[in-house]
Amino acid sequence: VLKDADSFIEAFDIMVHTTNICGSRDTLIRITPVDSIPPFPADSLRVSHYCPGDSAYAYAGISEAYVEKGTEYIWQTVGSIEKLYDSVVRANDDPAGVETVAWMHFAASTSATDTSLIHFYAQNDCNATDPVTVRTAPYTYAILAKPGEDTVVYGRSGVSLSVVSTQYGTPADYTYVWQPEDRVTLSDPAAPDDPATTFATKGLYNPHEYFFVMATERIDATLPFYFGRSACKAFDTVDIFVDSTFAMAMAEADTACMDALFEIAANPYGGNSERYTFDWYRLVGDSVYEPIADGGHTATLTLTADAPFIKLMVIGRDSTFVYADGDVETPDVPEEQPEDQPDVPEDTGNEPVALSAGEPLYVFSKVDTQYVEVRA
Predict the structure, then answer these.
(1) By percentage, how much of the chain surpasses pLDDT 90?
(2) Distance separating alpha carbons of residues 198 and 148, to the nearest angstrom
(3) Is the pLDDT at 76 greater than 90, yes or no?
(4) Residue 255, pLDDT above cutoff 70
(5) Are 232 and 50 in contact (CB under 8 A)?
(6) 282 has which bridge partners?
(7) Phi and psi, residue 183, nearest 5°
(8) Which of 60, 128, 229, 286 could form a disulfide with 123 if both were Cys (CB 3.0 to 4.6 A apart)?
(9) Do residues 131 and 120 lie in contact, with contact meaning Cβ atoms separated by under 8 Å?
(10) Taking the model in full, what pTM does it have?
(11) Between the CA of residue 90 and those of 63, 103, 338, what are the distances in Å?
(12) How far, in Å, CA of 369 to CA of 317, rounded?
């Protein structure tokens, strides 16, 4: 009987006297009766973040009050998750040390809509605690990616690519891979996972340029294995519109005073104005145009009205210069041929004549041709 009056005896000793032909020995055995196990706090059970189809851990802290010989920790699952195995973590990784955390490793559902229950309790030969329960489901991660500019001019490069918001945590809590990789530059290629590393585009040539990003949640290697989150992934796509329109809005006819200077403008628009060039020609015979001496390559031509009728042609170009950059391949440029042009000299001053360091490999141009008649 382990009762003394109305309370349990906390401990008592039994003396065992052993005798044989060689002599005798007394052995003292101290017995501590097992009392009831105190209930676990309702918030003692935790589950790490995990993704659909992933595996994760449930864990509960164990204080000194739960450490008794013969104490067993029980895990039960209800729903679509599957228990894999469970154990305890002891202080300082000492197998004989005090138990500090009980944990269970489980396989998650492949569906983010499936919800499961995890029950945890402790028991010994005398009694058991009431279960503590947590409801759990896979996390669905989402991110929002945006370019620095939604619309850019033809041939533009250096447009920033970034993730501006995340469903869990902050953008700094993830690493990123942007595709297509050969169209993206990194501020620090040697440290792609550094939160300080930024991403930007190379030259943009197609009407719509698409970039895809995969974000992976960072794992804190200093956390205990049962506490760490799964490296969940999220995806998004950005679309950059490339304005490749280039044209000129010239009047079909103009007038000037005989033997006086007059100006005529090509009135270009669209594309990339920083790369405009213009070549001016004058009709000198049947469908034969010759370059105007000192006509320049600007959008405005100044000329003397030296004849009663003058017919002019201007070829405007929005040119993209593609350069060699060491062994780095130049980006793909859409194959687009300019419209048929009149019979003009081949050398217009726009094409590179030699290939050396810093000079273009080739020039790709958006071309528009306009004609104007001037009467004096």
Answers:
(1) 23
(2) 12
(3) yes
(4) yes
(5) yes
(6) 290, 312
(7) -110, 10
(8) 128
(9) yes
(10) 0.60
(11) 11, 11, 75
(12) 9
